[in-house]
Specification:
The complex is a heterodimer of chains A (354) and B (346). Chain A is an alpha/beta fold. Chain A has helices at residues 2-13, 61-69, 94-100, 122-133, 139-152, 169-181, 199-216, 227-233, 251-256, 261-268, 345-353; strands at residues 19-30, 33-45, 50-54, 76-84, 87-88, 105-108, 187-191, 219-223, 236-241, 244-250, 315-317, 323-325. Helix content of chain A is 32%, strand content 21%. Chain A has an 8-stranded mixed β-sheet with strand order 6-7-8-3-9-10-12-11, sandwiched between helices. In chain A, strands 2-1-4-5 form a 4-stranded antiparallel β-sheet. With 346 residues, chain B is mostly helical. Chain B has a domain at 99-174 and 218-345: MetI-like (MetI-like fold, Orthogonal Bundle). In chain B, helix 12 (256-293) packs antiparallel against helix 14 and helix 13 (299-308) packs antiparallel against helix 14 (312-340). The longest helix of chain B has 38 residues, at 204-241. The radius of gyration of chain B is 24 Å and the shape is globular. The chains are: A alpha/beta (354), B mainly alpha (346). Chain A binds chain B through residues 69, 71, 98-103, 106-107, 109, 111, 114-120, 128-129, 132-133, 162-163, 165-168, 171, 176, 179-180, 183, and chain B through 1, 3-4, 243-245, 247-256, 258, 262-263, 266-267, 270, 340-343. Chain B: Residues 103-337 form the ABC transmembrane type-1 domain. Chain B: Its main location: membrane. Chain B: Keywords: Cell membrane, Membrane, Transmembrane, Transmembrane helix, Transport. Chain B: The chain crosses the membrane at residues 12-35, 105-126, 138-159, 214-233, 268-289, 313-340.
């Protein structure tokens, strides 16, 4: 299946992907059992392309991003393949994959306020990072590179020797982006980079991320729960639910013609100026220690059918490109007789409480 | 956004230094009140069984104990400002001279103890925090609790009984008789701080003698606060190792050893500096007990003697000196803290 899929994808993008994830899984060990936070995720990302990863809180978006970077807490296990520049990151020695960080794989975090060492000047942060990956550079060259990166982010060179606490939240996020970019990584994970910031700053950061791929040809995995940002800044979108990507494709296709009911519900829940009433999806994402059988969304799905509660949906191609996992889309021939019957509402609430 | 230049550092220091004056005033007032609240008056407490009533009253009059309390308070403040702490009852000495002659020994002892506590406590705390829940961590934690909980005189006696003999270390006094005698005869006691004087004399015999005498008392006192440092450093390491900026540094691919040293360890030591100021007060208290245990000729030893003699003037003077020392140290610590952590400055 995975070969078939990567063929389909590379046709769609017609460029060699920078990073391709195949069947990536991440578990967290807990006293109640393993939490399958990411459960078989595959995607490709071409140079300069931005993939938006959306979904509710707790559906594994951040875990996936961290899993790709190798920044998982102790006790977490990962599995699958992540091909980056011809090598599988997940099967590398930890030392070698650590070396990729910063210079090849970058990360922008959600909370810019706490991500800078309060005792170190901005200049120290830059010097440390650049020196780590390019020890041959002189002090002046390092400074020049750092100042260039800062200028791109609209931070004046006079602030180079300042301390982190002397910057506002938005500026600190721009600092973090500058610090990630100064190393020129080919792939960057941005984990909800605007969540902690106000709307105006949010727009600014989105603009910066947009420019980024144009200027550096950086591929970006943009994790967010803001559908608007995806529409604004992404080429493709992957909708994640309970550890799986349930639908992915070009942003325009997916948003104009969502195939998966979860995507539809997510889009309906978006608040805009035209919103008159609030829409939400009843219930919460399932307990990932013991996820529901069949499609994981079926207890909350307004269009759930009998087959959804028993069989895992098949990953198939969307009508206009991309992939989707939903029995409503097909494949017809794998749905057992009577499987198309609607699930009853009672079952929904029972499953919800369980 | 306004730029908070490093120019705010001098302003901060000025603020802290100016705050010393009200702090010292509060302390002086407390010392004064506490000693007056005690029943009876200093004169009859110290000399009541030796002199008749008339003589006692003369003494009281001479020392101003018959004046209204407000006048006494004012006289006390004025005399402290003039650095005049009065004359002791029991042995008729200038309190300032007592402080000068014995303060040096206490200072040497506390500083040596501090160095030992830091040299032992910080590395052990770092190891325990970095290798959390391993055997070394458990052992270090146990050591930390024991050293903090064990009474000073107990540790002191243990060292005297089991360590002094095998290592050939003296258990009493700050120096051998010859050292003290010859240093004084040859006029080598320039600073009245023995530890400094012997180094100034350059005589290796004196130096060795003084250091040997210093070893056990300093270890005894050092162990007391080293436990505090171990626990504090350990907890801070655990916190900084999990901090967002450490993770961000890892995400930038900074080498793990550099992340540990520059981001985790260094940041974990900031609160330790704050606590050093507080520990200093504890150390001075501990010094009193250590000095008694080791016959160390310091202020603490003197203080105990004067308390037994009910010599209020002497006690008042020495306590004032101790209190001022704590205030001064805490200001110095604040300033050092501001130098290291830019966020403290405003």
């Amino acid at each position: 299946m995975s070969i078939e899929m990567s063929n389909a994808m590379s046709l769609e993008m017609s460029r060699e992907p920078v990073i391709s994830a195949r069947d990536v899984r991440v578990w967290y060990g807990t006293t109640r059992g393993a939490i399958r936070a990411v459960d078989g995720v595959s995607f490709d990302l071409a140079p300069g392309e931005t993939l938006g990863l959306v979904g509710e809180s707790g559906c594994g978006k951040s875990t996936l991003g961290r899993g790709l970077m190798g920044l998982l807490p102790k006790g977490a296990k990962r599995d699958g393949e992540v091909w980056f520049e011809g090598k599988d990151i997940l099967s590398m020695r930890p030392k070698d994959s650590y070396r990729l960080r910063g210079s090849h794989l970058g990360m922008i975090f959600q909370e810019p306020l706490t991500r800078l060492n309060p005792l170190m000047r901005i200049s120290d942060h830059f010097q440390e990072s650049i020196k780590q990956h390019d020890p041959s550079l002189t002090k002046d060259e390092i400074k020049q590179r750092a100042l260039d990166a800062l200028r791109l982010m609209g931070i004046p060179p006079t602030r180079y020797r300042s301390y982190p606490h002397e910057f506002s939240g938005g500026m600190r996020q721009r600092l973090m982006i500058a610090m990630a970019l100064v190393l020129k990584p080919s792939f960057v994970v941005a984990d909800e980079p605007t969540t902690a910031l106000d709307v105006l700053v949010e727009a600014q950061i989105v603009q910066i991320l947009n420019d980024l791929r144009r200027n550096f040809n950086t591929s970006l995995l943009l994790i967010t729960h803001n559908v608007g940002i995806v529409a604004e800044a992404c080429d493709r979108v992957a909708v994640m639910y309970a550890g799986r990507i349930v639908e992915q494709g070009r942003v325009a296709d997916v948003f104009e013609n969502p195939q998966h009911p979860y995507t539809r519900e997510l889009l309906r829940s978006t608040i805009s100026l035209r919103t008159t009433g609030l829409n939400f999806i009843p219930g919460a994402p399932p307990d990932l220690v013991d996820p529901p059988d069949g499609c994981r969304f079926h207890p909350r799905c307004p269009e759930a059918m009998a087959v959804c509660a028993t069989r895992n949906p098949v990953n198939i191609e969307r009508p206009r490109g991309g992939r989707v996992e939903c029995w409503l889309v097909g494949p017809e021939d794998e749905i057992p007789p009577g499987g198309k019957q609607r699930l009853k509402q009672e079952e929904l609430t029972v499953a919800d409480e369980a | 956004m306004t730029r908070f230049a490093s120019g705010s550092l001098p302003r901060y220091i000025l603020q802290r230094v100016l705050l010393v004056l009200p702090m010292i005033w509060v302390i002086l007032t407390l010392v004064f009140v506490v000693l007056r609240v005690a029943p009876g008056d200093p004169v009859s407490a110290a000399l009541g069984d030796r002199l008749d009533d008339e003589a006692l009253d003369q003494r009281r009059e001479a020392l101003g104990f018959n004046d209204p309390i407000v006048v006494q308070y004012w006289d006390y403040l004025v005399s402290v400002v003039r650095l005049d702490f009065g004359t002791t009852f029991s042995d008729n000495q200038d309190v300032l001279e007592v402080v000068r002659d014995n303060g040096g020994a206490t200072l040497s002892l506390t500083l040596a103890a501090f160095v030992i506590a830091l040299l032992v406590g910080i590395p052990l705390g770092l190891i325990a925090g970095r290798y959390r829940d391993t055997v070394p961590d458990v052992l270090i934690r146990l050591f930390g609790i024991l050293s903090y909980a064990a009474p000073i005189f107990f540790v002191g006696y243990l060292l005297q009984a089991y360590v002094a003999g095998p290592l050939g270390l003296p258990t009493s006094g700050a120096a051998g008789v010859e050292t003290v005698f010859y240093m004084e005869r040859d006029g080598l006691n320039r600073t009245h701080i023995l530890l400094i004087d012997v180094f100034l004399s350059g005589n290796s015999y004196y130096i060795e003698d003084v250091l040997k005498h210093l070893a056990l008392p300093a270890v005894t006192l050092g162990l007391l606060i080293c436990g505090v440092f171990i626990r504090l450093v350990r907890v801070n390491i655990l916190q900084t190792m999990q901090s967002d900026y450490v993770e961000a540094a890892e995400a930038r691919g900074i080498a793990p050893t550099k992340v540990t040293w520059r981001h985790a360890f260094r940041n974990a030591l900031v609160p330790v500096i704050t606590v050093i100021g507080l520990q200093f007060a504890l150390l001075l208290g501990g010094a009193v007990l250590t000095e008694t245990t080791f016959n160390w000729p310091g202020l603490g030893d003197k203080l105990v003697g004067y308390i037994n003699e009910r010599d209020y003037v002497a006690v008042q003077g020495i306590v004032t000196v101790f209190a001022v020392a704590v205030v001064v140290i805490s200001v110095v610590v604040d300033i050092v803290n501001a130098l290291i952590d830019p966020r403290v400055r405003y």
